[in-house]
Amino acid sequence: MSKFVLLLALAATAVYAAPSSKIEARLAATLAFSSSTANVLVSFPGTTGPVLARFEKTTFATRGARATAIADALRANSVQAQSEARALLDSASISYEVFWITNQIYIRNADAALVSKLAGLQSVAEISQEFEVSVIPHHIEGQTARKAGILAEWGVENIEAPAAWALPGGNNGAGAIVAGIDTGVHATHIDLADNFVGTNYGWRDVTLFGTQTPRDDNGHGTHTMGTIVGANGIGVAPGARWIACKALSAQGSGTNAGLISCGQWVACPTLPNGQSPDCTKIPHVVSNSWGGGQANPFYNEVINTWHSMNIVPIFANGNSGPACTTANSPADSLAGVIGVGATTDTNGLASFSSKGPTIGGRPKPDISAPGQNIRSAWHTPGTNAYNTISGTSMAAPHVAGVAALLKAHNSDLTWEQINANMNSNANTQNVVPTGQNCGGVDESIFPNMAFGSGIVNARASLAAAIAGK
Fold first, then answer.
1. How many C-beta atoms lie closer than 10 Å to residue 98's C-beta?
2. Chain centre to alpha carbon of residue 5
3. Catalytic residue at 182?
4. Which end of the chain has fewer CB atoms surrounding its CB within 10 Å, N or C?
5. Is 139 among the residues known to form the active site?
6. Confidence of residue 2 (pLDDT cuts 50, 70, 90)
């Protein structure tokens, strides 16, 4: 390196060298030259845990009132913790977004000088660079024509959803609301149009070129939502209504900041422009078919807030199989989610389905569901397109649909109760083992590291809930 280049590098480094212990190494490397900028998350000391703990034994007349109280407390906590940094940003006329759900501030195109000033504030704990997250890659099997007179798709039949609807005291999801965080939803699709909550408090697009009306330029989000609540035999809970937050682009990629923003919206929906939050409009279930990496805790505080608001979090376990110890984040989150593996129409495990144990040695997935050759709604062409694709992305929506049936029966059920119900009533009788016995757990024993507790069964789960079991 020439003396001139070395001096330039040292000069750039000097801008943020003093408080560098607060600056993530990857971010420091990005800002190594004075002309560089980065999208950053500024974190503040402590977590939202103490705030949420105040509500553990506090009861409210409605879950909406509880959600409002929690969101208000988290907002107040953020204002107090972030006041010094927000004053600095306001004085510099820099736009930013506050994440009260994680006690962070998100800033686009921050330069080294700004990062240095922020890191110098005593109230700032860490500054990290935004990173990419994506839909869990799926396998395209090919588009299929609509089948005339179909009762239900094979996955819906496999988990006995129609039998659940027909139970004495059964339901088809009416009264439940399900959220999806994905690539958006084609809201005018003939199988999804009638049970959309509506654009106000039912749609948010946090991608770079966000729109005020629902869209899906990829198809993945439309497909997953179709399996959860779609009409005409494609959905597990066709009576439930849906809302959606678009965090992922046409390429199926997004960022941790975008996903946190959507997670916050699920905890307290707003108008499409992000204004006028109304926490009484929270969903009962949130389905997530995205992720990647392992043991990444970035979504834990979002998940913890969902729990406190009695929102059931469901995540695809990942398509990193067939090896053991391949469960993806956030399905492997210590915060607690229902992680879902994928099965075939012969009740075997799909070859791509990620297996446990987690990096920390915990069992995953929690349960499995149909995920291979799943036909559901698609975003194009027109309003009646379908596609057949495979992945744990397709399995998780089946479980989300069952959770919606249980919530429609009793909206007070917690995620722990729903998880326990599904696990206790899963199909283990005709499951085809892989023979790998990951984590030293024999696959004849349930739960195991391949299927979890077995294959979800809507009829058995809802029947148990109706019986009060």
1. 17
2. 45
3. yes
4. N
5. no
6. very low
